[in-house]
Design goal:
The complex is a heterodimer.
Chain A (H helix, E strand, L loop, with lengths): L1 H5 L4 H5 L9 H10 L2 H13 L2 H20 L3 H10 L3 H12 L4 H12 L2 H8 L9 H9 L3 H10 L5 H32 L2 H22 L3 H20 L4 H25 L1
Chain B lengths: L1 H5 L3 H24 L8 H23 L10 H17 L4 H19 L2
The chains are: A mainly alpha, B mainly alpha.
Chain lengths: 270, 116
């Protein structure tokens, strides 16, 4: 909106269109002619800076930074993981496994199992990120997909003209990626300067908010069961599961929840 | 190998090998196999269930077997903060913000009054 006022011209009204998803595609293709890729990139940056979803995400990453400081994961590696991994559950498993003293292979397997749910999010977003069809560009675009980006992209991208989507998307992910890196740094540094009780609170922010987010995101009984089994089995496997306790928790808890879901489905069908 | 594990470089290598690669591979697979996938298939439900149980497990582990800052907080308070957050979340008609604030309040107050 600010950009519009700065260069007040007839096309500006069209430029404002991507903010409201309900406008016709025709208006959008006109605005695509008025803007080049760099301007669409700037639009994406602006959408990222003003995104509420982004603010929530950055708050989570401040918590992640605090968690890393609280459990003794090095600052540089914490920031590096926010820059490169871009998926908070993966990062949580990474630092959780690190402090539990798990080996790289065990952590990698846990992360691999948990990150599988990124697959459908990337698949549903891809139609908007094809660009000119170059595989390298698609792989690069897919690198930034995480839940928050998925939510914002599903809102912003569909109404845009095909040529505008990719630059807009890259603007959005630039803000989200750098914002997460900065938030991790801030959370980490903050934790060292806070009084003990508040530092404890910051360390606890990621676990408690993830737990409630998992509860909120549960749609079906299978989600609630896997959540409950994961919570209940964690101490059991931590005591008796040896090095692979986290993997056993995920595999046993998740599979048990899924089997119950299958049995119920069969019982209903019968 | 041991020298590597003890060096300062180890956490960075871990981020790449155990964080980045196992996450990124799904994004690549999605690009390559995009058209042959059904979001609501039974396999995807299993994938979601295992992922949920894993993340729930790592949260429980961080709370029950803490390291660093949380060690100083007694177990009863750590469990109380999780249970309290949960309870208030449901009492407040599933408000995440209020649930998180309640859990945090218990944890911070507990840490404040128990720490020497």
């Amino acid at each position: 909106m600010l950009l519009c006022r700065a260069n007040s011209c007839a096309a500006c009204y069209e430029v404002a269109v991507p903010e409201s998803p309900v406008r016709s595609t025709q208006t959008n293709s006109e605005s695509a002619h008025a803007l080049n890729a760099r301007q669409w990139y700037a639009r994406g940056l602006f959408a990222g800076v003003t995104s509420v979803q982004g603010l929530v995400l950055f708050a989570s990453y401040i918590g992640f930074g605090g968690l890393c400081a609280g459990i003794g994961f090095p600052l540089g590696a914490a920031v590096f993981s926010s820059f490169l991994v871009l998926a908070l559950p993966s990062q949580l498993l990474l630092v959780g496994g690190y402090v539990a003293g798990n080996g790289a292979l065990v952590i990698a397997l846990a992360v691999l199992l948990s990150a599988a749910r990124l697959l459908p999010t990337v698949v549903t977003l891809l139609p908007y990120l094809r660009g000119r069809g170059r595989l390298s560009v698609q792989l690069f675009a897919a690198h930034f997909v995480a839940i928050s980006i998925w939510v914002e992209s599903r809102r912003h991208l569909p109404p845009l003209a095909p040529d505008a989507r990719l630059p807009f998307y890259f603007g959005l992910v630039t803000v989200f990626n750098l914002g997460c890196v900065a938030a991790t740094l801030i959370g980490y540094l903050l934790a060292g300067r806070l009084p003990h009780a508040l530092a404890v609170g910051l360390t606890f922010l990621t676990p408690i908010s993830f737990l409630l987010a998992l509860t909120r995101n549960s749609r079906d009984l299978v989600d609630y069961f896997s959540l409950a089994f994961g919570l209940a089995l964690a101490p059991v496997f931590a005591a008796y599961g040896g090095q692979l306790d986290l993997l056993w928790t995920g595999l046993a808890g998740g599979t048990a929840a899924w089997l119950i879901h299958r049995l119920r489905k069969k019982a209903r069908a019968a | 190998m041991n020298a590597l594990v003890e060096s300062g470089l180890w956490p960075y290598l871990l981020v790449i090998a155990a964080g980045f690669l196992p996450t990124e591979v799904w994004r690549w697979l999605a690009v390559i196999f995009a058209r042959r996938l059904d979001e609501d298939s039974e396999w995807m439900i299993l994938v979601r269930a295992v992922a949920t149980a894993l993340v729930a497990g790592v949260i429980m582990r961080l709370v029950l077997i803490p390291t660093g800052d949380l060690v100083a907080v007694p177990l009863a308070i750590r469990i109380g903060a999780v249970a309290g957050g949960f309870l208030v979340y449901f009492l407040a008609r599933r408000s995440m913000l209020i649930g998180v604030l309640a859990g945090e309040a218990i944890m911070v107050a507990g840490a404040y009054f128990t720490a020497g």
